[in-house]
Every structure is written in structure tokens, then in C-alpha cells.
């Protein structure tokens, strides 16, 4: 059975912290205790989200709705960070979160029927979890999705997976998959 969870599992693990940037807390000294408390709530939700994301059960509608709620909560968290709205690290994390959630939710909503079709097959195609093999050995996902779901499904899946891998691995040249 095809395993679509593999690339999504590793893409979600602490994507917001993979930039390797350090945060200069001195520049936030005028934010105040109340703001720090709100920031901490956002951080705790992000950690919880990163723990839950690898275990997404694409067949469980309640879990998928939970992911949607987490995405909405985190997005509103980042938008409410008024004293950090011009901080490049905060803006980058918020943008990565927005990209991640919109791609993940596209896969949840628009790709779910194709996912079910592909899951029922007895395929040896295993999608990878890195920039080099995100679509499986010899890009087997392309053929699998094209044959079972059509070109539009493949293009949507490919585009979203490329966005997700860029969030996970900013140095990845995901554009190499553009013409698959």
C-alpha cells in the first residue's frame, strides 16, 4: 500500500525552527510581559502542532479538522504579534506557517479522494522525505497519481509537495521537480 504520510511526517517536524537563525530578545524589550505571555502560548501551540502533524491520519476527518483549527490558531497568533510585526524572523516563521498550512490543507481537502484511490493500491512506490526523493524512487509518485487520478491531481499534489519541502528544507532546489 502506498504511504503518503512519509513525506508529510518529516516535513512537519519543527519546520519553523529549521532556519538556524537566532533570536535577539533585546530588540523585544518594549513588548511587555503580556506580549511575552501571548508569544509563549503561540510557541506552546506550535510545539504541540509539530508533535501532532507527523501523526496525521488522512482518513480521520476529526483529526484533519483539528489540524485546520491548529493552523487557524497559529496564524492568528502570528498576526497578533503587534510588537514583532517588523521582525524578520517572526515574519519568516509566520510566512512559513501560512505556506505549510495552506499546502497541507490543500492536500487534505482537494487531494483526499485521490489519496484514498492510491492508498487502496498494492504499490511499492514509497514517497521520500527529503528533497532528493520527495516523489519516490525514480519519481514513481508521478506515474501512480497520473494513472489513477489524472493530470490535475498530479499537478496540485506536486506543487503542494514542492512548497512543503521548501518549508522543511529552504536550501532544497525544489524547482527541479517543476517539469515532472
Overview of the molecule:
The protein has 180 residues and is mostly helical. Mean pLDDT is 73; it is low at 1-29. The longest helix has 23 residues, at 88-110. The protein contains seven helices and no strands. It has one domain. Helix 4 runs antiparallel to helix 7 (151-168). InterPro entries: T20D4.11-like_dom, UPF0376. Keywords: Signal. Residues 36-173 form the T20D4.11-like domain. Pfam families: DUF19 (PF01579). Residues 1-20 form the signal peptide.
Concise account of the structure shown:
With 180 residues, the chain is mainly α.
Layout of helices and strands, plus pairs?
Elements: H1 5-12, H2 32-52, H3 61-79, H4 88-110, H5 112-120, H6 140-149, H7 151-168
Helix pairs in contact: 1-7, 2-3, 3-4, 4-7, 6-7
Domain T20D4.11-like: 36-173
Pfam families: DUF19
Signal peptide: 1-20
Low-confidence regions = 1-29
Number of domains: 1
Mean pLDDT: 73
What is the radius of gyration? 18 Å
Helix proportion: 55-70%
Report the total helices: 7
Q: Structural class of the helix and strand makeup?
A: mainly alpha
| Strand-residue proportion | under 5%
What's the end-to-end separation, in Å? 23 Å
Shape: elongated
Sheet having the most strands? none
Order of helix and strand elements from N to C terminus? HHHHHHH
Tell me the total number of β-strands: 0
Keywords: Signal
Signal peptide: 1-20
Protein name: T20D4.11-like domain-containing protein
Pfam families: DUF19
Amino acid at each position: 500500500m502506498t504511504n503518503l504520510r512519509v513525506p508529510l511526517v518529516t516535513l512537519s517536524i519543527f519546520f519553523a525552527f529549521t532556519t538556524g537563525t537566532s533570536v535577539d530578545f533585546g530588540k523585544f524589550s518594549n513588548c511587555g510581559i503580556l506580549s511575552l505571555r501571548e508569544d509563549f502560548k503561540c510557541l506552546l501551540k506550535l510545539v504541540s502542532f509539530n508533535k501532532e502533524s507527523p501523526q496525521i491520519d488522512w482518513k480521520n476527518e476529526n483529526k484533519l479538522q483539528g489540524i485546520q483549527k491548529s493552523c487557524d490558531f497559529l496564524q492568528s497568533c502570528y498576526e497578533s504579534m503587534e510588537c514583532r510585526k517588523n521582525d524578520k524572523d517572526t515574519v519568516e516563521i509566520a510566512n512559513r506557517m501560512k505556506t505549510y498550512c495552506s499546502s497541507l490543507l490543500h492536500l487534505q481537502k482537494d487531494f483526499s479522494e485521490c489519496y484514498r484511490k492510491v492508498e487502496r493500491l498494492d504499490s511499492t512506490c514509497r514517497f521520500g522525505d527529503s528533497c532528493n526523493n520527495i516523489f519516490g524512487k525514480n519519481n514513481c509518485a508521478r506515474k501512480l497519481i497520473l494513472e489513477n487520478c489524472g493530470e490535475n491531481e498530479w499537478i496540485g499534489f506536486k506543487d503542494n509537495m514542492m512548497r512543503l519541502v521548501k518549508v522543511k528544507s529552504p536550501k532544497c532546489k525544489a524547482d527541479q521537480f517543476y517539469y515532472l
